[in-house]
Specification:
Layout: H1 2-51, H2 55-69, H3 72-91, H4 95-108, H5 113-126, H6 130-134, H7 144-157, H8 161-165, H9 175-190, H10 212-225, H11 229-238, H12 249-256, H13 266-276, H14 279-295, H15 298-315, H16 320-333, H17 338-345, H18 353-365, H19 369-385, H20 394-407, H21 412-425, H22 439-449, H23 453-465, H24 470-483, H25 488-500, H26 504-518, H27 522-541, H28 545-557, H29 566-581, H30 584-598, H31 601-614, H32 634-651, H33 659-670, H34 679-691, H35 695-708, H36 713-723, H37 729-746, H38 749-760, H39 766-771, H40 781-793, H41 811-819, H42 827-831, H43 845-856, H44 866-872, H45 874-884, H46 886-890, H47 896-920
């Protein structure tokens, strides 16, 4: 047993010894294998660690690799790892550690001495020691490679631009110092407030300059503050990612995205919060304020104002003044008490140019053009004082032009009223203080600063629509021609003005000037034909046929006289000449030529009758040689009349529709057979009927056009509005609004301008503006369809007031009812009036207004200017003024313009009486 146990112990000892021996051999082999593997895989592993930003671990790995390999390659890898490690220390702000490591590496690895020197320079730049960077640039024999390295460091490391711009080692003319100064100035400007593109163009900074990333960054910041995010992002993408300005790219992108998708840390996060603030908190309070203003809840609004201003003081204190200005304007639009708004805001808003600009726009939005002009006047004064622009700058001209355009919406009588009110109750009684209520003055000032054709065009349109007379209109055209001598439009207007006054010699003089400037202009060519026709017509009126025949020859020599149906018109002129000379054979010849050219007796009859009436032939001399069948088919009658009227329009004459055909045309258009007629023919008939004041025919023609639909629907709605009788005011306004709505949808600018101009001319007498409830100028689809369907179905011309039948009142009954003192207080009468009286208008005005309307309204329903009515019917106007200004007369402050009306009317009445006495003698 003992021997057996002993043998086992000896065997176990031998086994352990053998295992220890074999283990030692295996460890040695493993170490050898690992050394070989490390030598083989070391560089790849080191590069991987560097790419992951693990610089310290990469240095340790490089040390092990160099210890194992011991080659120049491994030493270079270790040196590169040290350089990356030092760079990481610099970027993280550990410059002291970086300096110490540079000394150690420089002693052990002299091969990277220049790289370490550059890193030392980078540290100097980071510490603000710019002289160490630029000192080599002062050496005259500096190597080009060294210069590029310095510029690279400037591009990638320089943050303090002012330090380089003020560096005394470099001369002030040195390119780098000058460029740094320009970039620093532009950067300061773009981060301080709004800038123009010219201030940040930086033309001295080229694409290869080390400051080119700064140039792109400055443009990106400008776009950021302008809220042009797309352009800002494009600029950010163009910045070199290795440059110093690239460090701001994440910050700006975070501010554009409102910080929702960017998580920044440290100073970047602090910069974002400093610039953007807590935007969500302020936005939330402003949304509450906007809801309260929309609901017009005054108590909640004042509370929300107080909270919004306090929040803005916390988040954006620099925007408090702007916020107060916007809040005050919105509160003013909601008619909130001014004092309570000031208390809620913690003080009044700043009254600068920006405030008056906001206030003026708010007045425009609330349809107060006169007040808006007064506010634009204050804006101009403040803007010039604050240096926005010069007193005679182009911006001033734009404001003047805009003010004049606003006043075009206001009737002249109301403007006169406002001028007197401003002079009586304003800050001053000097008339020059009310210059902004005189469109003529505003247009003149705008044109003197900026003689643009658009200004003169609008000025001339305003003069035509006012009662200034042709002399003032020609004066405007002459000023236009003096300012822009190469523009033919004022010459054409002066020519047409002379033509209307029958001053044909003067008109031809203007035409010759226009032909010298632009002889191929179609308007100029048409004007030559039209003037020769007018001259021939005048000679025929004067029975000077020898001169008229010369005119015919001149007309015939014009190339445009042989176009379209113009030869037929010339034949009609020769017929008239033969009638005056009583040349029967010549008359028959030209009669046959007229019919041959037109191939339509109806059209020939319209042309011939129009020419004879234009020549003022007496009724017994009217030409009757053109026989027309008694029964002409409706479509042939319509086509012939339209063709004849179109010929008159082409040569500038107004051809009427023979009375014997009007009834047939009305029946044709009122029936169901007009669908075969072309739309252009229907429009021609409707326009001709309006010119001849045949509203019933125009009404029927417009109805036929409405049934055709299509793109001409808006045109026929406008014709329907013009053809309605005077008492259909609401219906007329709805048709105009519908035509304007269709014009907007079809982008028909000409139709829209016509509708707007017609709407501006509605009423004429300013008191109607406050009494008649006009339809909204913007209609939704349902309202538009309702108006169109109503007008399509309304084929019969309205013959009386819609709410009163002929059996209720005759004209005398109406007049007596209005003037009966006992029945005047009948409240039932006022309940039935088709409009509501405003509280400031006395009910006593109504009888006088209806009498004025019945006596002086025009066939199309328009009421003349009150000045014109005062000249014609001074007694009625005086009664109206006595009622309207009863309180003012009692206080002894009757407006001056009212006295002027009465004085003018008395003078005109005395003149008429004097003329009457002269005639009697």
């Amino acid at each position: 047993m003992a021997s057996r146990k002993g043998r086992k112990r000896r065997k176990s000892r031998k086994t352990k010894a053998l295992s220890v021996q074999s283990g030692t051999k295996s460890t040695a082999s493993l170490q050898d294998a690992s050394h070989k593997s490390g030598a083989r895989d070391g560089p790849a592993e080191i590069r991987r660690l560097i790419s992951q930003g693990k610089y310290k671990l990469a240095v340790n790995k490089a040390k092990q690799y160099h210890k194992l390999a011991g080659t120049k390659e491994s030493e270079a890898i270790l040196a590169d790892a040290y350089v990356v490690r030092i760079r990481g220390l610099i970027d993280s702000g550990h410059t002291a550690d970086a300096k110490a490591l540079i000394k150690v590496v420089a002693e052990k690895h002299p091969s990277v001495g220049q790289v370490l020197a550059d890193l030392n320079t980078v540290i100097c730049v980071r510490e603000g020691k710019i002289e160490e960077l630029v000192r080599p640039l002062c050496e005259p024999d500096i190597a080009e490679q060294r210069r590029k390295v310095i510029e690279k460091i400037i591009k990638e490391e320089l943050i303090d631009l002012d330090a380089l711009a003020q560096c005394s080692l470099l001369s002030s003319e040195h390119p780098l110092r000058a460029a740094a100064a320009a970039v620093a100035e532009a950067f300061s400007a773009v981060t301080s407030g709004p800038v123009e593109d010219e201030a940040i163009t930086l033309p001295e900074i080229s694409r290869r300059s080390p400051f080119s990333p700064w140039k792109i960054l400055i443009r990106a910041i400008a776009c950021f503050y302008r809220r042009d995010d797309d352009t800002c992002k494009r600029f950010l993408q163009a910045i070199d990612p290795k440059s110093a300005p690239a460090r701001l790219i994440p910050v700006i992108r975070a501010m554009i995205a409102d910080g929702s998708s960017y998580k920044l840390k440290g100073k970047s996060s602090l910069l974002v919060s400093t610039i953007s603030g807590d935007r969500s908190k302020l936005c939330q309070s402003l949304q509450v304020l906007d809801s309260a203003l929309g609901a017009q809840h005054h108590v909640k609004t004042l509370k929300a104002i107080r909270h919004s201003v306090n929040t803005c003081k916390e988040v954006y204190p620099e925007l408090v003044d702007k916020l107060r200005q916007h809040i005050f304007i919105r509160a003013w639009m909601n008619d909130l008490p001014e004092e309570r708004v000031h208390n809620a805001m913690g003080g009044p808003s700043l009254k600068d140019a920006y405030f008056w600009q906001l206030h003026a726009r708010a007045a425009e939005l609330t349809d107060r053009p006169v007040l808006a002009c007064s506010l634009w006047h204050k804006f101009l004064n403040c803007a010039v004082e604050e240096g926005w622009f010069a007193r005679k700058g182009i911006e001033t001209s734009v404001v003047y032009f805009h003010m004049a355009d606003l006043l075009r919406r206001v009737p002249e009588d109301e403007l006169e009223w406002e001028r007197q009110e401003l002079m009586m109750f304003g800050d001053t009684g000097v008339e020059s203080a009310t210059y902004f209520l005189y469109p003529d003055y505003l247009y003149r000032m705008a044109s003197e600063i900026d003689p643009a054709p658009e200004i003169f065009q609008k000025w001339l349109e305003w003069a035509e629509n006012s009662d200034l007379g042709w002399r003032e209109q020609d004066r405007v055209a002459m000023e236009w021609h003096a300012a822009l001598p190469d523009d033919v439009r004022p010459l054409l207007y002066l020519m047409e003005s002379g033509e209307k006054r029958n001053a044909l010699k003067k008109a031809l003089g203007y035409l010759e000037k226009a032909e010298q400037i632009e002889g191929l202009n179609p308007d100029v060519r048409r004007a030559r034909l039209r003037l020769l026709v007018a001259t021939a017509i005048r000679h025929l009126k004067q029975k000077k046929t020898h001169l008229a025949r010369k005119d015919f020859q001149e007309i015939e020599r014009l190339p445009q006289a042989h176009e379209s149906d113009r030869p037929a018109f010339l034949a009609a002129l020769r017929c008239a000449c033969a009638m005056i000379d009583r040349q029967d054979s010549e008359l028959a010849t030209w009669n046959e030529e007229l019919i041959r050219l037109l191939e339509d007796r109806v059209a020939a009859s319209v042309v011939m009758e129009g020419v004879l009436k234009a020549c003022r032939f007496s009724e017994d001399l009217l030409f009757s040689g053109l026989s027309v069948p008694d029964s002409v088919p409706g479509d042939a009658l319509v086509a012939g009349v339209a063709r004849g009227c179109a010929i008159g329009d082409d040569v500038g004459l107004q051809f009427g529709i023979p009375l014997e055909w009007e009834k047939g045309l009305i029946e044709f258009f009122s029936g169901q057979n007009s669908s075969s007629v072309e739309v252009s023919v229907i429009r021609t008939i409707a326009n001709a009927a309006l010119k001849n004041e045949n509203l019933e025919l125009a009404y029927a023609a417009s109805g036929a056009g409405l049934l055709r639909g299509g793109s001409y629907l808006g045109r026929f709605l406008l014709l329907r509005a013009l053809s309605l009788p005077a008492w259909e005011m609401d219906r007329r306004n709805e048709c105009i609004a519908a035509a304007a709505e269709l014009a907007r949808r079809q982008r028909d600018i000409d139709l829209l301008d016509e509708a707007i101009e017609l709407r501006r001319q509605e009423g004429g007498f300013f008191l109607w503006e406050t009494m008649i409830e006009k339809s909204d100028f913007c209609l939704d689809q349902e309202e538009l369809d309702r108006v169109i369907e109503r007008e399509k179905k309304a084929r019969k011309y309205p013959s009386t007031f819609s709410d009163y039948s002929d059996s209720d009142y005759s004209d005398n009954d109406w007049y007596n009812y209005y003037n009966d003192d006992e029945d005047f207080e009948d409240e039932d009468f006022y309940d039935d009036i088709p409009f509501d009286l405003p509280p400031e208008v006395s009910p006593k005005v109504l009888p006088l207004l209806f009498e004025l309307f019945i006596k002086h309204s025009e066939p199309d329903g328009r009421v003349p200017k009150i000045k014109e009515i005062a000249r014609k019917d001074s007694d009625l106007v005086k009664q109206l003024i006595d009622v309207m200004f009863e309180d003012d007369q009692a206080k002894g402050r009757l407006p001056e313009f009212v006295t002027q009306w009465l004085a003018n009317s008395k003078r005109s009445s005395r003149k008429s009486k004097k003329k009457g006495r002269t005639r009697k003698r």
